Amino acid sequence: MNTEIIDTLQKIVGSSHCTTRLEDLHCYSYDGRGTPSMPEAVVFPDTTEQISAIMKLASHYRFPVVPRGAGTGMTGGAIPVKGGVVIALSRMNRIVEIDTANQIAIVEPGVITAHLQREVKKVGLFYPPDPASLKFCTIGGNAGECAGGPSAVKYGVTKDFIMGLEVVLPSGEIITTGTRTEKGVTGYDLTRLFVGSEGTLGIITRLTCRLLALPEDKETYLISSSSLSAITGLVARILNNDITPCTLEYMDRTAIRVVSGFMTDPPPAGTEAILLLELDGTKQEIEQLRDKLQHMLAKEPEFEVRRAESSDEVTQLWQARRSISPATFNLKPHKISEDVAVPRSRIPELVAYCEQLSKEFSLTILTFGHAGDGNIHVNIMLDKSDPAQLAAGEQAKERLFQFTISIDGTLSGEHGIGITKSKFLPLELNPATITVMKQIKALFDPLNIMNPGKIFPEDDSISSEKR
Fold it and tell me: How many whole angstroms separate alpha carbon 172 and alpha carbon 49?
């Protein structure tokens, strides 16, 4: 990247907010996936207008631009695989407005998810999307990946809480999408198009977020069993009995083992799996749901049900759940982290297949995640310095994807495609569908400068004939 471009970037954002120092570039060369690719510069804009000027410069010189939130993504979406400039949105971290009357928040993309939740709670409101990294991840990044979280079983995912956007296009043009009203059908739904597009169509600079009234109360339960199939089969039964938890999380025995140290009263020995279930609403609503749950499980001795009796116990349980992913590195130095989703009734098949893969490839494979909406995280643990383990892990991953598609599932529930899953896209989408998506990308980004190299497969893609 020539000095003229760097000089112009410094004039746009200020010299202190543009860096080409090698140590700084390294910090923005990777995300939660961990495999780095270096940018040529990193800029920290403070306004939409600055981002617009950067994109006009990029269009003129045709260099790649990669938007970045907190870098917590798991599929390489924020990695600058083609070099160019990383636009770090950390300075655009303002909550512009909380409209209590209409239950709306206007925020910039760099707002930390937990910060928004904390601020709206002060006025009796609730922003439900709660990815595991909520204390670090940003609203803009959540929108780019359409993040989910434990609350999705009742409340939905990020796309269900984004009403409108301000977006800078690759050309530098600024557009707005959506409305502040609950209803709005003026033209195409561009908001839904940008949410989940992984930064490949434009840079989100402002978001209109839907809020809800804060639930009056909440109760937390731990359901354990010595039967893996019984626990995984229980998920669909709970929901089919008109019991809608606000969270319904699942952990297998290995996931339990790696986080048991976080719990003063861990599940008993011999536990094969647990469900972490929460009910929220008014006290009367919770009482009705609790009665249904207790009645359902009363004559089923294979389940042990325990209610968390204190806020400290609830905190411990959630600390354990949210610590699974980092704690897995106590098993092996590396992992292949996937987040497939299947119909809830087919969770038992998916989990059983992962057990089969574990035995077949002699790898530790653990499953956990958002059982309430069928989004199961599959972690394949390995040592990548061992070529045999690495090859086995990649084969297990491909087999996992093939099986997931065969039982009407999807490659990703919330992590996105990025670079780690792009070659598998043809397993799920036929050629005509992929072509249409590429045409949409080309319409918004004809120069292919907006986060290039993401989502769409290269020549080594996996054929759909392998389903």
Answer: 9
Tell me the mean pLDDT in the region 25-53: 94
| Per-residue tokens: 282 | 């008014």
Q: Are 331 and 364 in contact (CB under 8 A)?
A: yes
Q: Residues 371-394: pLDDT tens digits?
A: 999 999 999 999 999 999 999 999
**From the CB of residue 169, how many other CB atoms can be counted at a distance below 10 Å?**
17
Kindly indicate the confidence band of residue 466, based on its pLDDT and cuts at 50, 70 and 90.
very low
Taking only the tens place, the pLDDT of each residue in 61-106 is 999 999 999 999 999 999 999 999 999 999 999 999 999 999 999 9
The predicted structure's pLDDT at residue 35 = 79
Say what the pLDDT of residue 460 is.
67
Indicate whether this model's pTM tops 0.85. yes
